[in-house]
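[[Local backbone shapes]]
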Amino acid sequence: MKYNIRGDKIKVTKAIKDYIEEKLDKLNKYYESPSEVECKALIRSKNNLQTIEVTVPLNKFILRAEVSEEDLYAAIDLVVDKLEGQIRKNKTKLQNRYDKSDKLDINFDFDPEAEEENDLKIVKRKDIDSKPMDEEEAILQMNLLNHDFFVFKNVDEECVSVIYKRKDQKYGIINVK
């Protein structure tokens, strides 16, 4: 696997780099050709939290995980566990979605005994009547409902929009045109 490890306001020492590479090498068993896979890792430090964000762009999809912990080495262990969990959890869905002729870059011949099958099921469906509103009113509505996101008809953009609360407690918006 090829690695692109960088730090944002933190110096990436050789020991940290080696530890990340060693842990991410555990994922090599899942890749068809590990030497062609590029893994991007970003380490950030804010207050006393160490955050590692790992992105693995593959042929048909992207694996991504982010973990924040006080101990950077614990965060590295957890992020690798998350990535492995994503591969295991989505094994069947990925196999069914793409033809056998599509190159997925993932080897699904790993131990099925260790795999947990979690079928994605819709457990609740909700119909909503949405009145046109601006972004500020949507934020107010979202906060009043104590939700992390809110779908609304955006008067300013003349489309359907989703306003959501980010991890940094600021807001993001997705416009569907």
About this structure: Confidence is low (pLDDT under 50) at residues 112-118. The two ends are 38 Å apart (CA to CA).
